Amino acid sequence: MKYFSTRGGLSELTFEETVLAGLAPDGGLYIPASIPQLPSNWQDSWANKTFPELSIEILSLFISADEISQTDLAALVHTTYNDSAWRHPDITPLQPLTTNKYILELFHGPTYAFKDVALQLLGNLFSYFLQRRNKAKSPGEERETLTVVGATSGDTGSAAIYGLRGKPDVSIFILHPKGRVSPVQEAQMTTVTDANVHNLAVKGTFDDCQDIVKALFADAAFNAKHHLGAVNSINWARILAQTVYYFLSYFAIRRTIPTDAELQFIVPTGNFGDILAGYYAKRMGLPMAKLVIATNANDILTRFWKTGRYEKVDSDSSSPAVGGVVETLSPAMDILVSSNFERLLWYLAFENVQNTNPGGGLREKACQTVKGWMDGVKSIGRIVVPDSVLELARRDFTAERVDDKQIRQTIREYYTSARSYTADPHTAVGLHVAGVLSPPPNTIQIILSTAHPAKFSEAVTSALDGVPGFDFDSVLPEAFKTLLTMERRVIEVERPDVELVKGVSRTVCGNV
Asked: Catalytic: 115?
């Protein structure tokens, strides 16, 4: 299996090169040269496999045995998903809410967020590739290193840090928007004081942080000198790792529900990575209904599915938010531009070209189309896709928007229901959308729960204020009780400026 850029398409990389590169030099995102189909007997042969066993099967479809042997891949997976790192034996368990509504809990890893599923594996992949490369070097030859740079709206940062802390030959720099992540999220990042971990609080938005990271990767000289690696969901390995829990939940439902039931996944969505993993699972052959995009007030994706316009600021709004980003109760989704949406746009462009202009060079034509679209987003803040592209997007997805009032109401509704459930505000976005949909009677809804409610104490406590019997301490993990008082290490960046970030990196690391 080879990989190519959504904006280039001619040169191809191995899986190892793709993982270590993260972002393509032309600014595009790497995607597989083809989407493999599932083995003919997968429904029977995979039916009772555990999360690690399913991971090995699915990853093997995208990673050549010439790159990572089956023995090494199995060792990597079992090292990643084991009882010492995860608090539930199923890794991502399903919890029933009603007979046709389930929560897929993705927060049982080290940092209590869904990002752990991919970033624990990505950290081990980085180590595996670097160790193999350095082992092959001659005595005295300079060791190969990796400088990981990432932006976070909350959970990616801590999950990446926990996945890479203390690892040899790796340094990690995480940029977060100062004051725009929850106190627990900030503490999880900044209380990690390992020498290879560096936290930067940027006075700006998540999109500002993400733009800085993209600019660093686009700087060919800086990238070549410091061997940059990506942990954001622009890194293909993250998307691949997340496809596994769609399959795991499918088999869990099949064991308890009649086989004619159709699954409908509802995904709280910001950067489009989590739901994109579901799209790849669907393209591989996993049966499911349309994937449901659940956004908060930062609704660029919902607006796209309604209008075909992908625009930073709603052209129909009379009072757009300053900077385009609205601060909400679900801060991990406070994102203006969804990076992974570009990957979906490539598939839409490819199929549209195939339908309207068949012939040779389809991949290159799709790449040119995507490059034009993304250039438009960067230069004027908006694009409008043809109706034929929008119809293709609507074939596999639908989208709905949720505001803060509805988030509070939903948290309260599910906490006070007969089967009481405490939802974090991002999960509440998904739960609310699930409630407004009208699926056929044989549909089983699965709402992806992306974070533990204790990570968002202010949102949860405000929603449940006055509810008899509610005590936030009852949902607070022991690990969080001392977190806010621990020593911290963080560097403030006065404004979203790539040169300032470069200066910080030179100050903290002599070789960076």
From this structure: yes
